[in-house]
Amino acid sequence: MFRIALTFILISVCCLFTHAQNSRTGTWGLVTVTLPSDTNHRWGGYTEVQTRTNTLFNQFFYYEVKGGVSYAIRNNLVALLGTGRYTTYAYGHVSNGPTTTETRLWEQLVLNESWNRFKFENRVRIEQRFLNAGYRNRFRYRLNLITPLNHSTLAPKTLFTSVYDEVFFNNDDPNFERNRISGTLGYKFDKSLSFQVGWINQYNHFDLNPSGNKNNLLLIVQYQINRKKNDTRQFLPTIKD
Length: 241
Fold this sequence. Notes:
The protein is built from 1 helix and 11 strands. The chain is mainly beta. The chain has one domain (about 1-225): Beta Barrel (Porin). Strands 1-2-3-4-5-6-7-8-9-10-11 form an 11-stranded mixed beta barrel.
């Protein structure tokens, strides 16, 4: 099964690379380390580094570093307080320094539910954004469906899919700001390490330029720190962004 997954990943990357010669598909790369919250260990957290390029693996223009502290309210409901630093450059002119810098705070609730082998993540997030151009608020909702393929649960050596849609709103006109939709194929190597490859589209409602609706190759590496006496809840390898 691992060979099948690896073959699929390589074919997907090659197809995206071929298509990207004209479509200017970008790249999002994420590396995340998570310490999950559960009923035996109420407190947890995570940290993440993300980079983006305007074309496939070329024309770097953006990075972010962020993290947060989580608390398990109950078995399937987790609250998190997060912060991060977000920096945007004009690709091709990185040496000129960033065009936009942002420090962000956010509060979120994540409710996880299951139906047979289907795993649903409902996430609500409220953000306070301190940009070099001023202050903004933002409100986000995401529904994520994760489905293990070759096992009934997200056990080690499991191939899985992840599909989500997220909407972004703010308190200024236009209130609807952005839509983000993604689909990935993932593989969970063991209790700690997982990898996903797929596609993500980000549509900015307020941006009429071609860059306002952009497809990207998505690569995610996640490492989960496991503690003794974890509860039986399955921690979902969802994107933390």
